[in-house]
TrEMBL record:
PROSITE patterns: ENOYL_COA_HYDRATASE (PS00166). The keyword Lyase applies. Transmembrane segments: none annotated. Its EC number is 4.2.1.17. This is Enoyl-CoA hydratase. It comes from Phaeospirillum tilakii. It holds the Pfam family ECH_1. Coiled coil: none annotated. Belongs to the enoyl-CoA hydratase/isomerase family. GO terms for molecular function: enoyl-CoA hydratase activity. It comes from the Bacteria. Keywords: Lyase. The keyword Lyase applies.
């Protein structure tokens, strides 16, 4: 598949997608969003791929939705096309884990795309923000919801009401990112983490992801019940037998995704 706005590579069992509109700081135009969806579809369908890394450039993960493309939209354009659910949320329906490796600016839709991923690894130069309010709009791809769940009301409200950016250290303190790594090591580290995940039992990884995600959609008691049912289900896998046998026999497990 020939893409124009993203670069798609495979590193062993990891799918690596690099947003690639350097002149526009990876602004998320309709073509980029469509191509991202196609690349995710292809990696989801590829049995060799166990996890996906989404990254940008050193200067920008993505500086938001493409303002030049959005500027002339009318209410009716936005409403009838159901902008932004027309493709943007493809990441959230991926069953395989998706890691955002964020360097530079992750602003507006860029921050929202990073938050749609399962977790964010940040380079030490990363900057996160929801500057929509300064353009006369509000976040439209989950920013008011996912940011608030990630960092709490006080910080989310300040960021959404003022557009203030936070740096990588503040993002880590606030729980928005799982870890901060030196810029030069970001992609390599993200691929390493993804390879680790890809080497584990595929069905059990999918169950673990589903269980954590249930925490955002259910009450505690429903979430714990859901977790317990999936936990029980892991005992029906050959990989559970292999994982535990390998531990007892003091060897590395060979998971067969069964
Ligand atoms: C279109 C963008 C862009 C964007 C940057 N560019 N961000 N084009 N949409 N979101 C373009 C600039 O126009 C410029 O192109 C080139 O990228 C380089 O940007 P500069 O501003 O010259 O770079 P710099 O001075 O380093 O400033 C970096 C920046 C700034 C702080 C990130 O570019 C900026 O504030 N960008 C907008 C950030 C933003 O408001 N994002 C939220 C968008 S709304 P030219 O050709 O002019 O030189 C949003 C809503 C999502 O995301 C809702 C769901 C759909």
């Amino acid at each position: 598949m020939a893409y124009e706005t993203i670069i798609v590579e495979t590193r062993r069992h990891v799918g690596l997608i690099t947003l690639n509109r350097p002149k526009a700081l990876n602004a998320l135009c309709a073509q980029l969003v469509a191509e991202l969806g196609q690349a995710l579809d292809a990696f989801e369908a590829d049995d060799e791929i166990g996890a996906i890394v989404l990254t940008g450039s050193e200067k920008a993960f993505a500086a938001g939705a493409d303002i030049k493309e959005m500027a002339g939209k009318s209410f009716m354009d936005a409403y009838l096309a159901d902008f932004i659910t027309d493709g943007w949320e493809r990441i959230t329906t991926c069953r395989k884990p998706v890691i955002a490796a964020v360097a530079g600016f992750a602003l507006g839709g860029g921050c929202e795309v990073a938050m749609m991923c399962d977790f964010i690894l940040a380079a030490d130069n990363a900057k996160f923000g929801q500057p929509e309010i300064t353009l006369g709009i509000i976040p439209g791809a989950g920013g008011t919801q996912r940011l608030t769940r990630a960092v709490g009301k006080a910080k989310a409200m300040e960021m959404v009401l003022t557009g203030r950016m936070i740096d990588a250290a503040e993002a880590e303190r606030a729980g928005l990112v799982s870890r901060v790594v030196p810029l030069a090591e970001l992609v390599e580290e993200a691929v390493k983490v993804a390879e680790k995940i890809a080497g584990l039992s595929r069905p059990v990884v999918l169950m673990a992801k589903e269980a954590v995600n249930a925490a955002f959609e259910t009450s505690l008691s429903q979430g714990i019940r859901f977790e317990r049912r999936l936990f029980h289900a892991t005992f029906a896998t050959e990989d559970q037998k292999e994982g535990m046998a390998a531990f007892i026999e003091k060897r590395s497990p060979t998971f067969r995704n069964r």
